[in-house]
Amino acid sequence: MKIQTRLIAAIIPVLIIIFTSTSLVFTGSFRNVLESQARVNANLLCQSYSAQLDSALSQYLNIAQDLGSATITSINIETTLQSFRKRYPQFSQVFYTPSDGLIIDMAPYHADYISYDLSQFTGWQDSVNTRKPQISSTSNIFTEAGLVFFAPAVLSYIMGQEPSVEGIVALVLPLDELFLDFENAPLDKTRSLFVADSKGSIQYSRNLQNPNASHISSLSTGDSLDILTESMIDQKTGFATYSDNGEKKYISFAPVTTAQWSLGINGIYSDMTSVINKTSRINLVLFILGLFIGTLLVYFIVRTVTHPIEELTQLARKITRGDRNIISTVDSSSEVGLLAASINTMLYELRDYQASLEKTVEERTLALQRTNEELEATVEELNASNRTLQNIRENLETHVEERTKELTKAHSYIDNILNSMPSVLIGINPAGIVTQWNREAERKTGFSRTEAIGKSLETLLPYVSEELQKAYRAIRKKESFSISQKLTVRNDINVYEDITVFPLTANGVDGGVIRIDDVTLRVNMEETLRQSQKMEGIGQLTSGIAHDFNNMLAGILGGAELLSPFLDNKEEAKDYISLIIESAEHAAELTQKLLAFSRKGGESFAPVDIHSALSGALIILKSTLNRKVSIKTNLSAESSTIIGDINQLQNAFLNLGINADHAMPDGGLLSVSSKNINLSSRYCDASLFNLTPGAYIAIEIRDTGVGIEEKHLHRIFEPFFTTKEHGKGTGLGLAAVYGTVQQHSGAIEIKSTPGMETVFNLYFPITAQQISPKPLSLTPVEGKGHILVVDDEEVLRISSEAILSDLGYEVTLAENGQSALDIFSENKGIFDLVILDLIMPVMDGPECFQNLKKVAPEIPIIISSGYAKETALKKLQGLELSGFLHKPYKIIELSQIVAQVINDSRLHSTGLR
Predict the structure, then answer these.
(1) Which of 353-357, 631-635, 708-712 has the lowest mean pLDDT?
(2) Rounded CA gap, 480 and 515, in Å?
(3) Which residues face 21 on adjacent strands?
(4) By C-alpha distance, which of 326, 322, 317, 324 is closest to 354?
(5) Is the pLDDT of residue 159 over 90?
(6) Is 259 helix (H, G, I), strand (E, B) or coil?
(7) Looking at residue 76, what is its pLDDT?
(8) For residues 778 and 203, which has the higher predicted lDDT (pLDDT)?
(9) Dist CA 222 CA 242 (whole Å)
(10) Nearest residue to 425 (alpha-carbon basis) of 442, 441, 444
(11) What are phi and psi of 254, to 5 degrees?
């Protein structure tokens, strides 16, 4: 016991000194490292949030730039804006302005925003000057706080000119939408996040103790934050601490460079270092616990050294007294333990030597008995093994029989699968010999399975011999091989096939599988769809050309009619005037064809009898066609009233009749028939035309002419495409027919057999509305009243003023909608009628129409245009439009509609209507 006490007394002070010094050094160093790491983590978190916000702003700038690029190539800016708004609903408003900054188009549409000046916002002028997207400062944009992303639409492909800004797109993004992600950011309540602009004004805040703070300097009511505020405004990154009412706080900040903002995170410093304080306390507890455990370990170690020595001393005394049945219980790997083990061994050997001699005889007797028993067991095992082998043999025979039946069934099942496939499936070995031939292959080639298997594939499919060589090489390389839309002409018909080759290796047998799919129907449908899209694009182009052309024709036609009365008896001059008028009318008819093709100009549609249009066209055709051509009619449709334009329909039938006449130079039969049918929803859905299921009139026009080659059928309705010789056709006839059919919500189909016949089938939806004809006078109608004429074309203003003055009216002219509105407001009550152009600069027709109706709801207004743009007319829905005058118009048409509208207005104001 004295030895133990002395060892423990010597070791414990050493342990206390070592543990205490180590703990103090470790705790101090660990605390400094943790505080430094906490500041770094706070800075990294702030930089992460600022980078996230910076990335979002950059992405919105790229989106704005994409929209700017889209508008400069767009045919319809309004439609482009609407599509963009649907794709990016986070923008509350999308605007388009010309270079003056006044809004002319938007999505969604708000009448109050038209002509609103966006150039007042910061960033607008920079976007114009730099031709790059810019961001405005935060503003209240139409009652909501947000940013405006400006992007220019730059025209840069005009030869010899510098790139110029054609317009500016403006995307309004509410601040709530921009900072939506920060609302869900994992930020505890003891920390606050805020975003400030370059002037220090707070744009967004979360968890601020002072939620009404509007500037960085107002975050603290204690020490001054001037230096910190300047650092954030200067777009710097940093970390700082400050005192707020005696409490130590910190702030971490980082720049948002795209918007010249700064993002900051602040909180209580003690919260940030709370983990460090906990760690220090844990270290102290660990130190005390370690000291206690160390003391116990020292005690037990010393105990394990002294206790075995004392036990051996007692054992030696007992052996000395003659006790041989005792043993040592010391268990140690030390020298003391080895000594105890040696003493035990000596005692065991003395005690066990005699017992071993007695057991030797007994063990030999037992060994002989076990040998005899083992020999008997071996014989029994051999007999059992023989019986087991017999059972195994019987089971194997049964299993082979069952597997043979399963394989036969599986082979039959696979054959059924292959034969049910709609594709041609052929199995071959590496030499090209057929090993598998499904039912579709039999149907396509005419070779039966028995005839094909074992033969070379090249002899069965010679039309793909070139591709087969590539297929064989792919199979040998264990690679797949495919051919898309291989063209083969069979029975004068183009057949398209997809050919795919798969290498196959199974159970040591090499080869491949060839799959052939007939994709002719898909290819033809894709070609038809491309043709439809091409026609739609050309239609949009022609509608714009027709508008400007009609304005020019209106001036020519009006000027010629005004000049005619001044020629007196100069017959030759009158002939020239008549030639000008006739040429202008022919040009107008050509424009109508272009408008019909582009699906414009359907404003004058009314219930018409399509049989009347057919009959009128046939009367003209009988007197103009080749005398060798016979005409046969069978108009058996009981319902023949549709909504449409009888002139367009008659022109369409004339074009088809003339086309048939050209196809029968040696004479033939032209058959025209009609009947009523019902088109199902399945047929309408499959059609490339916009059809509605219901009752239709079907018109068939058949000729026995030369027909049309199949390669030309898909192009027959293209504008300017013709198979006739140069100078004998414009290629607009069938294109105009196509446009007329589309405009009347119908469909047209063509079937042709070269050398035999061509058949056109036209379908038009019938209507229950009644036909109400309105006869027109053949002479100009004079009248009295004051008329305001609004048109941006000077020649049309001059001719309209001259015509209306000759008819007895007083005329005032305006060059655009804004000028007309100013004149009308200053002279309210003196005008009896307004004739308003639809498309004008500064303020267009629809907007002027609405403003005039606000000033004087009772004023009658006639719209005059080369064509009525559908999006513009939609803005006039629900308002009272008195009439529509299609350019170019003649004096008789102008006089009749003006007199009728003024008379109706006067009767209405006197209560006689």
Answers:
(1) 353-357
(2) 11
(3) none
(4) 324
(5) no
(6) helix
(7) 81
(8) 203
(9) 9
(10) 441
(11) -150, 150
- Cα 629 to Cα 618, 703, 756: the distances in Å are 12, 9, 15
pLDDT value of residue 870: 46
User: Residue type at 595?
Assistant: L
> 714-743 pLDDT, tens per residue?
677 776 556 555 444 444 568 888 888 988
Q: Reduced to 3 states, what is the DSSP secondary structure of residue 826?
A: helix
- Angstrom CA distances, 25 to 20, 36, 279, 287, stand at 9, 17, 14, 12
φ, ψ of residue 329 in degrees (nearest 5): -100, 10
Name the burial class of residue 422, with classes exposed (0-12), middle (13-18) and buried (19+) by CB atoms within 10 angstroms of its CB: exposed
Q: Can you tell me the distance from the alpha carbon of 82 to that of 67, in angstroms, rounded to the nearest whole number? A: 11
- Judged on CB neighbours under 10 Å (0-12, 13-18, 19+), 659 is buried
Question: DSSP assignment, residue 852?
Answer: H
Task: Provide the residue count of the chain.
Answer: 913
> Distance between CA atoms of 86 and 89, rounded to whole angstroms?
6
Enclosing H/E stretch for 763: strand 757-765
Q: How far apart are CA 639 and CA 634, in angstroms?
A: 14
> Which residue, 286, 237, 279, is CA-closest to 262?
237
User: Between vectors from CA 794 to CA 793 and to CA 800, what angle results, nearest 5°?
Assistant: 95
Q: What is the DSSP letter of 216?
A: G
Cα distance between residue 558 and residue 789, in whole Å:
15
Contact predicate 95/64, CB 8 Å: no
Using alpha carbons only, give the angle 235, 237, 243 rounded to the nearest 5 degrees: 105
Residue 533 has pLDDT above 90, yes or no: no
Confidence of residue 326 (pLDDT cuts 50, 70, 90): low
Query: Which pLDDT score is estimated for 701?
Result: 95
What's the average model confidence in pLDDT over 486-506? 76
* Residue bearing tokens 């050209």: 662
Amino acid at residue number 716: I
CA separation for the pair 312, 335 (Å, rounded)? 12
CA distances from residue 362 to 367, 369, 774 in whole angstroms, order as listed: 9, 11, 141
Q: Which helix (H) or strand (E) holds 579?
A: helix 571-597
Residue 583's SS3 state is helix
Max avg pLDDT among 676-680, 742-746, 755-759: 676-680
Backbone phi and psi for residue 141, each to the nearest 5 degrees, phi listed first: -100, 105
**DSSP characters for 669-732?**
EEEEEEEEEEE-HHHHHHSSS---SEEEEEEEEEE-S----HHHHTTTTSTT---SPTTS--S-
Q: Which amino acid is at 894?
A: L
Q: Which two tokens stand for residue 187?
A: 């930020």
More confident residue, 345 or 742: 742
Query: Residue 306 above 90 pLDDT?
Result: no
pLDDT of residue 515: 86
- Own/partner contacts of 322-328, CB < 8 Å, gap of 24 or more, are 324/350, 324/351, 325/351
Q: Across-strand partners of 873? A: none
State the chain's mean pLDDT as an integer.
77
Distance between first and last Cα of the chain: 134
Higher pLDDT, 728 or 534: 534
- Distance in angstroms (rounded) separating the CA atoms of residues 852 and 833: 11
Per the structure block, which two tokens stand in for 235?
A: 């777009």
Q: CA-CA distance, 131 to 123, in Å (whole number)?
A: 11
Would you state the pLDDT for residue 474?
78
Q: Which residue has the higher pLDDT, 802 or 4?
A: 802
Q: Which residues pair with 238 in a beta bridge?
A: 253
Unique residue bearing structure tokens 């439809």: 532
Q: Can you tell me the distance from the alpha carbon of 348 to that of 343, in angstroms, rounded to the nearest whole number? A: 9
SS3 168: strand
Q: How far is CA 435 from CA 477, 650, 699, 801, in A?
A: 19, 64, 54, 89
Whole-angstrom distance, CA of residue 763 vs CA of residue 458 = 49
pLDDT higher than threshold 90 for residue 820: yes
Residue 90 corresponds to which tokens in the numbers above? 């986070």
